[in-house]
Design goal:
Elements (H helix, E strand, L loop, with lengths): L1 E5 L5 H14 L3 E4 L8 H8 L5 E4 L2 E2 L5 H14 L4 E6 L3 H7 L7 H21 L5 E2 L4 E2 L17 E6 L2 H10 L2 E4 L5 H18 L8 E9 L4 H19 L5 H6 L3 H11 L6 H7 L3 H7 E3 L2 H12 L5 E5 L10 H8 L6
Parallel strand pairs: 1-2, 1-12, 2-3, 3-5, 4-5, 5-8, 8-9, 9-10, 10-11, 10-12
Antiparallel strand pairs: 6-7
Length: 344
C-alpha cells in the first residue's frame, strides 16, 4: 500500500524541508490541496527538491478553470517533475463555483466526464501530434496552432485522479480517470458496497479493469502517544465527521449505515444560531459512527488496523488528522504500511 503525505507548510524554506522529510521518511507522494492556497505552485518546489517523491493535487477545483488552462498547468508540472505529477480533481459544490469563483455551475458528473476527456484530447495533440477537435456539450477545443503547442513530455501525460463520493461521479472516475480520490467522509462498508461496484461499471464501460486503476483514500485517523493526545485526536475527529455529516451531498454515506436521521440533525444544528453548535454537533457522533469513519488506535496499532480494513480495497492512503500531532508519529506507520505482507 502506498502512503502519501500532505503539504502543510507554505514558506519556501519550510516547504522544501517538509518535502525532503517526507521523501526521507519513505512516503510515496506529497499532495497539495486547494483551500487557502494555490495547489500547484508548492508542488514545483517539492518536485525540484526531491528525487523520487510523487507530487499531486488533492484536490484542484476543476470547474474554477477551463480544461485547456488545466491541461497546460498539468503538462508543465509533469515536465518539471520528470513524470512524477498526478492531477487530482474535484468538482466542489455549487455555492463555491458560482459565488467564490464566479464560474458557471451545471450537471457536475457529465461536465466532469467531458472536462477530463477534453484534457486528454489536448494532451494527445501535444504528445502524439493528433489533431485537436474536441466538441462537447460543455466544452469545445478545436484550435491548437504549433506556436501554442508545448513539446511532448517524455514520460507521457500526467495521471488524472478524480474525487468522488456519489455514484454518478464515481462512475465517471471509472470511465475517464486513472484513479479515484476517496473522500475522508466514507467508510469501509460504503467503499465495498457502493464505491467498488459503481467503479467497476465505469471501468467496464471504458474497457478497463480494476488493475488499470488506483484508489487513494484520505483516511480519518485518530491516534496519539498519550491519553491526552488520544482524547484530543478523538474529539477533533468527531467534530470533523459531524461537519461533513451536516452536508446534504454526503447523506448517502450515512444512509448506507441507517444513519440518515443523524444527517438531518447535524444539518439543522449547523444552521442554528447556537454559539456552541460546532461543539454540540461533535457530541452527536457516538463511538459506533466514529469507528465507522475513522481508524482510532494507538500509533503501534494504526498500520495493522488500516490493513485489516482496507487491504484489497484501496491502493494508497493518506492520513486525515483534524488535530495537531507531531509528524514523527507517522514515520513507523508509513514504513509498516509499505512493507510487503508475508505470503504465509
Amino acid at each position: 500500500m502506498k502512503v502519501d503525505g500532505k503539504i502543510s507548510k507554505w514558506s519556501t524554506t519550510e516547504l522544501i524541508e517538509e518535502a525532503r522529510r517526507h521523501e526521507k521518511a519513505g512516503y510515496d507522494g506529497l499532495w497539495a490541496s486547494e483551500s487557502s492556497h494555490d495547489p500547484f505552485l508548492p508542488l514545483l518546489l517539492a518536485a525540484e527538491h526531491t528525487e523520487r517523491l510523487e507530487v499531486g493535487t488533492a484536490i484542484a477545483v476543476a470547474f474554477a478553470r477551463s480544461p485547456m488552462q488545466l491541461a497546460y498547468t498539468a503538462h508543465d508540472l509533469q515536465t518539471y517533475s520528470g513524470g512524477r505529477f498526478t492531477l487530482g480533481l474535484g468538482s466542489q459544490i455549487k455555492p463555491h463555483i458560482e459565488r467564490r469563483f464566479s464560474m458557471p455551475w451545471s450537471h457536475p458528473a457529465p461536465r466532469m466526464r467531458e472536462f477530463i476527456s477534453a484534457m486528454h484530447a489536448t494532451w494527445a495533440a501535444w504528445n502524439d501530434g493528433a489533431e485537436l477537435d474536441f466538441r462537447g456539450d460543455f466544452y469545445t477545443h478545436t484550435l491548437m496552432p504549433p506556436f501554442f503547442s508545448p513539446p511532448p513530455v517524455p514520460q507521457g501525460p500526467p495521471k488524472v485522479f478524480l474525487a468522488a463520493v456519489g455514484e454518478a461521479m464515481t462512475r465517471v472516475a471509472g470511465e475517464v480517470a486513472d484513479g479515484m480520490l476517496a473522500h475522508g467522509f466514507t467508510t469501509e462498508r460504503y467503499l465495498r458496497e457502493v464505491t467498488l461496484p459503481t467503479l467497476e461499471r465505469g471501468l467496464t464501460a471504458s474497457g478497463r479493469t480494476r488493475s488499470d486503476f488506483s484508489i487513494s483514500h484520505l483516511l480519518l485517523t485518530a491516534t496519539g502517544r498519550t491519553e491526552e493526545e488520544m482524547a484530543r485526536a478523538i474529539d477533533g475527529t468527531r467534530r470533523q465527521i459531524a461537519f461533513y455529516g451536516s452536508t446534504p451531498a454526503y447523506r448517502g454515506v450515512l444512509e448506507r449505515h441507517g444513519w440518515g436521521d443523524l444527517g438531518d440533525e447535524l444539518n439543522a444544528l449547523s444552521k442554528s444560531s447556537r454559539d456552541d453548535r460546532w461543539h454540540a454537533m461533535g457530541t452527536l457522533i457516538d463511538d459506533e459512527v466514529l469507528n465507522a469513519f475513522a481508524v482510532v488506535a494507538e500509533p503501534e496499532r494504526v498500520a495493522a488496523e488500516i490493513r485489516r480494513r482496507f487491504d484489497g480495497v484501496v491502493d494508497r492512503v493518506s492520513f486525515y488528522t483534524a488535530y495537531d500531532i507531531d509528524g514523527a508519529v507517522w514515520e513507523p506507520i508509513v514504513r509498516e504500511l509499505r512493507e510487503p505482507r508475508p505470503s504465509w
